[in-house]
Amino acid sequence: MHADLLLRARRVQTLTEGPPADAVAVRAGRVLAVGPWASLRDLGGPATRHVDIDGVLVPGLVDSHAHLTGLGMTLAQLDVTAARSADAVGDAVRAALPGAAGWIRGRGWDQTRWAHDAFPDHRPLTAAAPHRPVCLRRVDGHAVWANAAAMAAAGVGAQTPDPPGGLILRDAAGQPTGVFLDEAMALVERAAPAPTDGEVTRWVRSALGALHRAGITGVHDPGATAQMVRVYRQLAAQGELPLRVHVLLDDNDPAIAPLLAAGPAPDPWVAVRGVKLFSDGALGSCGAWLHHPYSDRPDQTGIPIVVGAALRAKVRAHGAAGFQLAVHAIGDRAATEVLDAFEAAGVTSAHRWRIEHAQIVRPLDQARMARLGVLGLVQPTHATSDHRWATARLGARRVRTAYAWQSMARAGVRLALGSDCPIEAPAAVAGLVAAVTRRDAQGHPPEGWLTSEALSRRDALWGFTVGSAYAGFTEHRRGRVAVGFDADLTALSGDPLDPLEDLAALQVRGVCVGGVWHPACEATPA
After folding, report:
1. How far is it, in rounded angstroms, from Cα 184 to Cα 164?
2. Alpha carbon distance 425, 384 (integer Å)
3. Could you tell me the pTM of the whole model?
């Protein structure tokens, strides 16, 4: 039996107990054999493709919390991440006007990177575009900043009440300033034109190329709408979705009702298995729900979104229908609420229910996560992005329970790692660096941040492979390089498990997804 593809590398890190290997043979999308090149070379035939890799093969890296469509949309919109003041964002909007039609949409502003950690008002955006609606999402996706034209188009004014789970920031006269937090974001965003299926398709295709170049072979997409699922399935049916997608449906989208009624739908490419809920906001925008007030804002404890009886009812209903529950919880109070709801619903390890982010979790709740079999879905690069201000938000004592991956692992919590792109860049290498060194890809901070919570190299790689596979119910066919497993592999320039290897210097050589090789230098075909 000849292989369709023969991959030869300096080493194959199989994450199994098997003997050393430097080659993988692939047939019909599965691993046919793995071992020394000398024993696999004869599996080649006239039609076999041979790929020699100057590097190391590892199991396909899976981003267990990545907004696939959101990444593509961000790549197509105005990026204001580099702006270091509100006025600089206004300048970027002004420069974008000639090449844009309709609403100006964008993302990336972060007031914590400006001279003062204070939310802006609409005036810089209104001055830049007085007659065009402007709506920009904060870097964490939990706030929007709108100009006067956008607020007028949305019909938002002094009399508009704060929605449940959201907050409209207002001036001394009670007028909206232009910043809307969490559930209040929809007040403005719903006034913008809805994307067409064609636009979503273009966004997805753009994201696919970026993810492949980052070494990613699959994603768990939390908060996918019915429209997104429709596009993913159409692309998969056409053979144009070279990425595994584990879908966690957006509970806020009423159009998912038919998908919920159909029940969980496992599939090799687009598996609709779970439902995503929000229990609170984000730490950077002070929406994370805490047990005790923010250290730098003693009058605030955050924004609870779906909590209490409402959360318990949703968990019970979706769980009874067989769906995996994935609940966003960044604050420690939110984590407690989620665990209360999970425990009331009778969760066990077989459910594989998840706390997305698990960013601030008290030790007693870490132990409870382990006891209940609740997974911790964490994003290492959040710690290296947030370290500049996290201690100010939480205080020196409480911050020790934040981004506490090693503590959770020691408590027995199963971890799966991701990026939360487009909030962070979709780079698995940066995730490995952050997990192991507690430094970002540029080496900051030089001494690392709260390094006692760093993961070992093996645990970090495990989190992007075996851990992600377990969180997606696919550990019997993905996460390792083994005979019969899906031929999903990532090729890196070096060995992430070699203690002498500089993780930050690793480069992605390419990915193999379903037995098809994609060099990193090539975008995914449209």
Report:
1. 8
2. 12
3. 0.94
Amino acid at 129: A
Pairing relation of β-strands 508-513 and 134-138?
Answer: unpaired
Residues 296 and 430 in one domain: yes
Both 254 and 358 in one domain: the answer is yes
Identify whether residues 184 and 218 lie together within a single domain: no
Of 166, 189, 212, the residue that ends a domain is: 189
Task: Let me know whether 205 and 120 are in one domain.
Answer: no
Residue 59: cis peptide before it, omega within 30 degrees of 0? no
Distances (CA, A) of 427 to 139, 193, 392, 422, 432: 16, 31, 28, 10, 9
- In sign, the C-alpha dihedral spanning 188, 306, 71, 193 is negative
Q: Are 181 and 209 found together in one domain?
A: no
User: In the structure encoding, which two tokens stand for residue 290, read together?
Assistant: 């805490």
> Can you state the percent helix, strand and coil of the chain, rounding each to 5?
35, 20, 45
For the stretch 249-283, pLDDT in tens is 999 999 999 999 999 999 999 999 999 999 999 99
Report the alpha-carbon distance of residue 166 to residue 179 in Å, rounded. Answer: 11
Do residues 229 and 255 lie in contact, with contact meaning Cβ atoms separated by under 8 Å?
no
pLDDT at position 526 is 31
Q: 88 near 42, Cβ under 8 Å?
A: no
Q: For tokens 């997804």, name the residue.
A: 513
Residue type (1 letter), 70: G
Residue 216: count of CB within 10 angstroms of its CB: 31
Q: Write out the two tokens for 337.
A: 């609420």
Distance (Å) of CA 413 to CA 278, 399, 467, 479 = 21, 19, 11, 18
pLDDT tens per residue across span 405-436 = 999 999 999 999 999 999 999 888 999 999 99
Contact of 464 with 62, CB cutoff 8 Å:
yes
Coil, strand, or helix at residue 453? Answer: helix
* DSSP of 221-283: EEEE-HHHHHHHHHHHHTT---SEEEEEEETT-GGGHHHHHH--B--SSEEEEEEEEES---T
Which tokens in the block code for residue 125? 């955006």
Q: Is the dihedral of CA 71, 75, 77, 79 positive or negative?
A: positive
Find how far residue 253's CA is from the centre of its chain.
19
Of 449, 353, 361, residue with least CA distance to 408: 361
**Residue 110 belongs to domain spanning:** 76-189
Query: Does one domain contain both 230 and 122?
Result: no
Identify whether 495 is part of a domain.
no
Domain count of the chain? 3
Instruction: Specify whether the CB–CB gap between 415 and 378 falls below 8 A.
Output: yes
Kindly state whether residue 30 falls inside one of the protein's structural domains: yes
Query: Do 215 and 316 belong together in one domain?
Result: yes
Tokens 């009399």 — which residue? 159
Residue 518, domain member (yes or no): no
Q: Nearest to residue 277, comparing CAs of 191, 210, 357, 178?
A: 357
